[in-house]
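assembly run, all chains below
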Amino acid sequence: MSALLDAPPYGPRDEAALLREAVELTRKHLAGCRDYAAIWPDFSGAESLEGLPYLHVGLFKRIAFRTEGVKHQRVLLSSATTSGTSSQVALDEVSAQLQAKSSLAILKDFVGEGKRPLVVIDDAASLRQRGQVSARVAAALSLLPLATTTTFLLKGEEPQWSLVGDAVRAEPAFFVYGFTWALWKRWAQGGIPPSLKELLAHKQIHFVHSGGWKKLEAEAVSREALDGALLSGTAAGSRVIDFYGLVEQNGVIFPLCEAGARHVPRWATVIIRDPWTMKPAEPGQQGLLQFINVLAHGAPYHSVLTEDLGSLLPGPCPCGRSGPRFTLHGRVPKAELRGCANV
Amino acid sequence: MSELDAFEGPWGVTGIASAVRPSEVAGAWSALREAMVRELPDAFTRDEWAYLIQFLERGALLSFVEAAFGRFVGGRSAGFSRLATGRKTVTLVLPNNVSLLGPLMLAVATLSAERVFVKVGSRGDDVVQPFLDFAKRHAPPALKAVLARVDAQRLEREHPTLKSWLGASDVRVAFGSDAAVKAVEASAHPATSRFLGFGDMYSEAWLAGAVSDDVLDTLIKVFAIYGQAGCTSPRRVVLLDGTAGDLQPLGERLSARWPQVMRRQVPMHIASQNVLHAQVCRHAGVEVSLTPGHGAVLVRAPLATPVPSGPMTLVLSAAPLASAVKALPANIQTLGLSVGARLAEVVAAASQTNARRVVPLGRMHHFGPVWDGNLLPAVFFDVMECSA
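ok done. output:
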């Protein structure tokens, strides 16, 4: 277990310890995962985090990496969006504990310690998949330690508004979690009954969402529009927290802070790489995001080069959190290569 | 008989007895070139646009008719041994990511057809619509009349409009995956309708003897424009009678020349995908390197080793000629050659394969009247013997 998780996520950083643990983890995966060793056969060590091997995020759609010597429990699947293929990440007991501890620490930093009811914009049936867990469910599960009760809004496609009313009636505050588009479609535009609306007007709600903006951008829904629609008719102190995370970096989430930045906890780091050279970029320069953490023991997803664009922000953050922070600029823009074969 | 476009070959003079006169259409397209040299639409690269300008030259377009009927000899009203009539209605079914083949085939179809329907890709950027938009904006009067005969629409493959086009077409031309081409072919059509299907095809480049920098530059150009997405792009380079040891220096020379030949950075997603595919190839156990700027993935592998395909992955192999011939897949389309003094021997060997085109390396993408084993005018025209 990493000692780095024993301190608050955005406190003073121990970069030497992070490097030491990341190198150790890399060696462990190289020794225990033949698929990984085939890709990085010559790694002997790194003097900086930038020198660590990485796996391109697309590999997780092609190769089911597994490192020997740990007890694998289930497979985490990303939502298969554009390509129709899911990323597969093998989860194990040790990593699951570390990841739960990590996401809880990060979430607490943003929503506080207080436990309250959790409403999930999903169907409970989505939890019942043997041996597999979807990104959506994994994100919802990360809030469970902060939940006194959990209520699923949907049964199939039907919203069960009465269940929500029952769950939150006696509570001054509660959480609502959903994928970004689900929160918009099912809650903001979901036709909340007037009686429940009246009840919600007296509740402090923390809306937590993840999963990206692609679908909402397609419908020309801005962050302001989503936040405005969610917070309208709620009690003072209600908030919307948009977090970014990857299935391939399970446990490390990046909520948007009050100053519009995404902070990296002390057990992880972010490197921005120039896509044409893979050289680390300067602060402010846009590039591909690479994330490194020390939580992934079941497979080598501890260092992942993404197809998301971002840039490092210089100087201290007005929100008061320390450590590296970045702005997310979205996915790498794509266009098909011209050819003859894709009707 | 009024004056017809006349073409003279060894069998005599063929008159084009259609409502559409190829010489007038070719002239109309040719007149557009004046505007084309002044403006490059965003959808095209400079090289693509230059090729299109060259292609639309009157004589170059007429060569498509000449390939079947002989040399163009102007207008005549008598003395024909044959009369050719353009098939009236043509439907082109083009993929989303269609290469220049789209605009080129469109221009060729207008030489003979009274009505040309074009199914443009239903998503993504394509080059046909921007080309038509440009042509409409700058069309001289004669070309306006040609373009009035063209109906291009973004449609899904199952769209009723496409079905009705195909159901009324005398010629159906489809580019795409094998499955897509088969689906178009199977769509209801007139009993006498002709079909040209261009499905999944594969191309290779064969090099022999001393490989000069010029040859490498040509190879880089023909590969980099479409990568593996183009049916005429070389997916593999075979160094004939070379050894595995020759491949590393060949790869190093290609890498060194790549940024000099391809001066523009590849788009960011291509660079990223190439990093991915290099890792995929390493995982597969083949030797791999990325060119500077991540413009391409160069893989060194024996002919028999399966190499994971990537959009910009070029495989380098060394093999004796006989092995190279044996390893060609059934869907081999174009062999691009730079084999020096061994040309006759290599062409003789290639003639025993399924290859549809055996051309100099630099002409791998050149579109001509003989395409994929078909003499195009023979598809677009009906011919009547009138020697009596």
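The two ends of chain A are 51 Å apart (CA to CA).

Chain A touches chain B through 30 residues (CB under 8 Å).

not gonna interpret more than that til we talk
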